[in-house]
Amino acid sequence: LVHSLTVADCCAAVFSEDLAEAILEVRDSYSKPLRLFQLGGVGPGDVAGAEGRGPVEDLQALLDKAAPTPPACAPPGYRDMLLYIYTSGTTGLPKAAILPHSRYLFATLAALKSLRLTQSDVIYNPLPLYHTTGGNVGVGCALVAGITVVIRSKFSASAYFAECAKYGCTVAQYIGEMCRYILAVPPRPEDRQHRLRLMLGNGMRPTIWKAFVDRFNIPNVVELYGATEGNANIVNLDNTIGAVGFLPQSLPQAIYPVAIIKTNLETGEIIRNASGLCERCGVDEPGMFIGLISNRDPTREFHGYVDKEASKKKVIEDVFVKGDKYFLTGDILVMDELGYLYFKDRTGESFRWKGENVASAEVEASVCAILGLRDVTVYGVEIPGAEGRAGMAAIVDPENTLNLEVLANGIDKMLPAYARPIFIRKVAALEMTGTFKVKKYVLQKEAFDLKLVKDPLFIRSGNTFAPFTNSELQDLQTGKLRL
């Protein structure tokens, strides 16, 4: 919280009663003056901080006293800054992405037109409103076009379709692992008693896609791909399983200048040819997804982050011609011969083992399917004296019901030898971001260090996984145990 206040250089914070304790806990850790406004709940009173910081102010009382007429100030411009939206922080602390009015309007209007939304539609939105999909695409349809949007303070897998039916929703939103959680709820009559004509979001796993639409009778899933700060946004409008977008190959590339370029999948380093330029990937060849930056077109601008140094890292120059600039998504995608695009992995989450590139997202999908939709995350860990990184899977198993032999047998059938996890870590829970993405940075850093890891660890042994103890650790470090 202190980090988020600091990077955005905040001068005030508005919060509800349930977040008052968190705000008051850190207010004295924030170095600059910070006005605090509480909305709702018991009056905050004169709760002052250290160094003579002001009291918490009752926002509702101030609103009641405010003049009904708008303040005398110039109207905002199309390119003026509207919001900071924080990245999810899957691999570190969040960054504050700059969102101008132009990008907010573009995202909302794109949804309105591509989904053919009308005044008769009702959108179910149980997403966090500080995220682009919920607060921009979802709520934006209400703000910009007056379409009814049903919002929920916290996502509930068991209430999802019951509430869609209750409020007569025709469109429902999802992100991240939501659909997997919903599918894990035992079947009920309400599953199909809704009026939905489509679901819209990003992160639907290909391994559950068909089972999800069949069970819940979803006519169409519209899968989005994009980043709050990015300009390389695509969409799969026709329910093609697993695709995150579609680019008709008959259209000139200049109409929508995005590309997949050749990349070292393990390091994320862009590969350049003898002329120092990048090369496009061929059909079914994975690479980095990028989007042309142009200040002459509002849809192609890159506004970056409040942190200028972080912004520079997301821009690549001299891509196809000297002097051009592209936005680096940091994601590895692949395109088939028809023009459908599929997500492979995030840069740095792919790893190389036994001379082959391993996509952690694909291994996670396989392990998840074997174990019946448990939470799982996969990452590469360094092995002493070995080239590359061995696969490690952290699996949620609070009740110790994981059958390691069944898991081993399943991954042997579904995955090639180089992609099969060598290590298993049983955890009580996986830390998630507010957008339902797993934070794996700490897990990867701790690897199989028994001084740091207190969870049960296992190593592949024959047709199962055996406990990983100090004896195995010593054998691994001395080279006696080879993987």
From TrEMBL:
GO molecular function, one term: long-chain fatty acid transmembrane transporter activity
AMP-dependent synthetase/ligase domain boundaries: 61-236
GO terms for biological process, alphabetical: long-chain fatty acid import into cell
Pfam families assigned: AMP-binding, AMP-binding_C
PROSITE patterns referenced in this protein's UniProt entry, alphabetically: AMP_BINDING (PS00455)
A GO cellular component entry from the record: endoplasmic reticulum membrane
Catalytic activity: tetracosanoate + ATP + CoA = tetracosanoyl-CoA + AMP + diphosphate; a very long-chain fatty acid + ATP + CoA = a very long-chain fatty acyl-CoA + AMP + diphosphate
Listed Gene3D superfamilies: 3.30.300.30, N-terminal domain of ligase-like
Keywords: ATP-binding, Ligase, Nucleotide-binding
Key word Thylakoid present: no
InterPro entries, sorted: AMP-bd_C, AMP-bd_C_sf, AMP-binding_CS, AMP-dep_synth/lig_dom, ANL_N_sf
Domain AMP-binding enzyme C-terminal: start-end pairs: 362-437
PANTHER family: FATTY ACID TRANSPORT PROTEIN 3, ISOFORM A (PTHR43107:SF15), LONG-CHAIN FATTY ACID TRANSPORT PROTEIN (PTHR43107)
Family: Belongs to the ATP-dependent AMP-binding enzyme family.
Protein name stated in the entry: Long-chain-fatty-acid--CoA ligase
